[in-house]
Design brief:
Oligomer: single chain
Distance between the termini: 31 Å
Structural class: mainly alpha
Shape: globular
Strand order of the largest sheet: 1-2
CATH superfamily: Ammonium transporter AmtB like domains
Number of domains: 1
Number of helices: 17
Radius of gyration: 23 Å
Order of helices and strands: HEHHEHHHHHHHHHHHHHH
CATH architecture: Orthogonal Bundle
Strand content: under 5%
Helix content: 55-70%
CATH class: Mainly Alpha
CATH topology: Ammonium transporter fold
Length: about 475
């Protein structure tokens, strides 16, 4: 009965629905592009921001609900939970993120003006939660996951606001604010929720033919739509064009590299499904911080290879080390796919900033690197505004100064995410959270009415089985 959802889940949902409805009623209104009162005969409907933002919103939505959902259904006896808990957590996270990210808009405007772009930003915040979810999948209840989303979203919103407003960085693909934050927040949570008996594996921590196929399907959805994820918030035009090209090139090079590494390091020279499901995506992260910059196609290709290689060896060597030596049981290896690659991407972004000059970019350099634009009162600003109408004043930073701010953002984001994850883990560890026992981990039967052909009890192997014995499991 300690894991029953009969009271806990309905109470949590009811309370949060009342809170969200009240906040929507008081603070949320339509954006100008969604307000019928502002439409007239002189308004061109096709100029509505919907037609600019909705394609990216739809693509990222597929990644969130289908891509992540299928990818997390890789355990043989945890397919229901992986996919459905992803669905539940994502639906709640987007609602909550609209309010938490909108709080700062309310601070300045007195209202949260809702448009598709707000939903898109909320989806990015939701992606942060789902990445963190990967570190604790199989070991947590839906109540714990909802609580994690409840606490992670506002922490992320504050960090995002502080970094963008005060440190002011270039991070078009979210390598710092999405991937690094999500990774180290998730690692902080799993550190607190450490289970010593799971270090040698769990009898149900296995895959099967059907679950691996479903997980690869999730990988394919993420792979196909990743260019939209990286380019959604870049400047329209050539910046966005480069972002799409670089993402595709990075993903392509990381994919073929993943196949090669998988075959080389397999003792029998065969391919491993876990490599195909995860390592192939590394290139999408490693090009993220510099995705809209003039880094050249060959650099994007090289970043894909570097990210894939780091991710592959991270899964092979670093994940077991973290579990045995540092009490970090990273279930999906988010430190490899999002942490290591996020650090590579951030470093590449810093290099691109240091190399950026007007000879390569022309006047548009001050639009891409907006914080390097001349400040108000500088005669050069007026000259640039004649060349680029609408160019906003910047801070007049040099390339070296901007690079230092990027470094500051990396360390402050990691620190804030880690502390936030540790505190959230302490809350999730409370007895009322319906946490599964070690024996019940990775088992759909704990929280679902399962069909008649599902029976995880057929596996009668002790919890402390070793790796050699696990190969005998049918």
């Amino acid at each position: 009965m300690s894991t029953s959802l009969k009271v806990r889940l309905p109470v949590f949902v009811l309370v949060m629905e009342v809170v969200i409805m009240a906040l929507f009623a008081v603070f949320v209104t339509y954006d100008d592009n969604a307000n019928a009162r502002l439409q007239n005969n002189e308004t061109n409907p096709m100029e509505n921001s919907l037609y600019r933002d909705y394609p990216y919103f739809a693509d990222v939505q597929v990644m969130i609900f289908v891509g992540f959902g299928c990818l997390l259904a890789f355990f043989r006896f945890y397919g229901f939970s992986g996919m459905v808990f992803n669905f539940l957590t994502a639906a709640f996270s987007i609602q909550w993120a609209i309010l938490m990210q909108g709080f700062f808009q309310f601070y300045y405007d007195g209202k949260i003006h809702l448009a598709v772009i707000n939903l898109l930003n909320a989806e990015f915040a939701c992606a942060v939660v789902l990445i963190s979810f990967g570190a604790v999948i199989g070991k947590t209840s839906p109540i714990q996951l909802l609580v994690m989303a409840l606490l992670e979203i506002p922490i992320f919103a504050v960090v995002e606001w502080a970094v963008l407003k005060y440190i002011r960085i270039n991070d078009a693909g979210g390598s710092i604010l999405i991937h690094l934050f999500a990774c180290y927040f998730g690692l902080g949570v799993t550190f607190v929720l450490y289970r010593p008996s799971l270090n040698d594996g769990h009898v149900k921590e296995i895959t099967c033919y059907q679950s691996d196929i479903l997980s690869v399907l999730g990988t394919l959805f993420l792979w196909v739509f990743w260019p939209s994820f990286n380019s959604a918030l870049t400047f329209k035009g050539d910046d966005q064009h480069r972002a799409v090209l670089h993402t595709f090139i990075g993903l392509s090079s990381s994919t073929i590299t993943a196949f090669a590494l998988s075959a080389v390091f397999n003792k029998r020279g065969k391919l491993t499904m876990a490599d195909i499901q995860n390592v192939t995506l590394a290139g999408g992260v490693t090009v993220g911080a510099s995705v809209d910059m003039m880094i050249s196609p060959v650099a994007a290709y090289a970043l894909g290879i570097m990210g894939c290689t780091a991710c592959f060896f991270g899964y092979r060597y670093l994940t077991p080390f973290l579990a045995r030596r540092m009490r970090i049981q990273d279930q999906c290896g988010i430190h490899n796919l999002h942490g290591l690659t996020g650090l590579i991407s951030s470093t590449a972004g810093i290099c691109a900033i240091l190399l950026a000059n007007e000879e390569t970019y022309g006047p548009s350099m001050y639009q891409i690197f907006s914080h390097r634009a001349p400040p108000v009162g500088d005669p050069k600003l007026l000259e640039l505004q004649r060349l680029i109408p609408g160019l906003k004043p910047g801070l007049g930073r040099t390339a070296e100064e901007q690079a230092l701010y990027q470094v500051a953002a990396i360390f402050s984001t990691i620190a804030a995410a880690t502390v936030g994850g540790l505190l959230t883990g302490l809350v999730m560890k409370l007895p009322v959270m319906a946490s599964p026992t070690d024996e019940d981990c990775f088992d759909d039967m704990l929280f679902f009415d399962t069909p008649s052909d599902f029976d995880s009890s057929v596996l009668k192997i002790p919890l402390n089985y070793n790796e050699k014995e696990s190969n005998k499991v049918v």
